[in-house]
Amino acid sequence: MSGKPPINVQDGFFYVLRKDNTLVEVTLLSERKKIGRIRRFDKYAVVLESEGREEMIYKHAIASVSPVPGGAPAPTPVRPPAV
User: Fold this and answer.
1) 79 within a domain of the structure (yes/no)
2) By C-alpha distance, which of 34, 43, 35, 38 is closest to 14?
3) Sheet-wide strand order for 23-28
4) Distance from C-alpha of 12 to C-alpha of 29, rounded to nearest angstrom
């Protein structure tokens, strides 16, 4: 064994979606769909911002997460230069 920690596919996937502010569709096991942007995530849950509010969704309730086609990242706000 090389002593390297195992690769966690979820962390890399969620990190890129969060960093790029990508619009995603989360399909739950109940077949409900939620569209929003990932704000935070950890080992057990994802915080999705949707319709101006944040909602925590436990990962064990998620069937799939996919980027929304044509759901380009939100523009980054431009701050005026400091005076």
Assistant:
1) no
2) 38
3) 53-58, 45-50, 33-41, 23-28, 62-67
4) 22
Q: How many domains does the chain have?
A: 1
The answer to whether residue 51 sits within a structural domain is: yes
Torsion angle defined by CA atoms of residues 69, 29, 20 and 73, in that order, rounded to the nearest 10 degrees: 40
pLDDT per position in the chain (83 positions), as tens?
A: 567 776 688 999 999 999 999 999 999 999 999 999 999 999 999 999 999 999 999 999 999 999 999 866 655 555 566 65
Residue 39 belongs to domain with CATH number: 2.30.30.100
- Residue 29 domain boundaries: 9-67
| Token pair listed for 58 | 């436990």
